[in-house]
Structures are given as C-alpha cells and as structure tokens.
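Hi R.,

Here's the chain you asked about this morning:
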Amino acid sequence: MGRILALDVGEKRIGVAVSDETGTLARPLTTLTRASKREDFERIARLAAEQGAERVVAGYPRSLAGDEGPQARRVRRYVEALATTLSAPVELWDERYTTVEAQERLQEAQRRKLRDRGQLDAAAAAIILQDYLDAHRPNLTGDGIRYTGHE
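And the predicted structure, written out as tokens:
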C-alpha cells in the first residue's frame, strides 16, 4: 500500500498523521495551524514529500446520518482544491466519531489533560488513517490465505 498521509481538516487546525511504509499502522505526526489555502497546501505538500506519502486521505465529516452538512461541504471543497496541487492522489474518508474516539483513547492512556487541542487533532487524524488502513488491508488468515467468507 505504501506510506499514507492523513488529514483532519478543521476550521482552525489540520491534524496530520502518517502510516508506516507497510500501510499497517498510523501515528499522529503534527498539527498545522490554518493560514491561507496556498500556505496550507504548500505545507501539506512538503509533509507529503518528506514522509514519502503515496496517497493523502482526508477525513470527511458527514453527519451521524451520513449526510453532507455545511462542514463536510467545506472540507470537500478544500480537499478538491488541495488535490489539484498534489502529485499524490487524494481521497475523502468518513470520519464520523473520530474526534470522540481520539479523546477517549488519550484519556484511557492517562495522558495529560487535553489542554493542547492540537494533540487531539493529530490523534483524530491517526484514527481516520487507521480506520482507512484497516478497511483496505487484505483479509488474510495466519497462513497467508485470503479469507472472504465465501469459501
């Protein structure tokens, strides 16, 4: 699968995560404070190049019912514009519940209080990416045989 960069695009910040080279594990990378689109896109392109990302996945904040609300429309338009500036393909990925899940995971790990919202944004990006990686991982048994449930 190759290395993948994930984005959790918010109004003020962009959480960034990256996968390992095998496309198995995601980890938080950094949080970018939003500036202009041009500056954002340059920083994202730089991160993608530094990390050797072959693909960029951006969280798509649909409503709980799966509809595209105002925030999802803003993110979609932002990601469509970003895609025209990157050489790597860019994909939207459903991010419902990731911020809540990120907060729960950080609290379970008994990390310091979430005073730093940027830490939460990068953790949410890592959860988006891990969900994407898990959904695209071949379903193999321990002996390397693909199991589809139809055999």
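Helices lie at 37-51, 70-83, 98-108, 117-136.

Let me know if you need anything else.
M.
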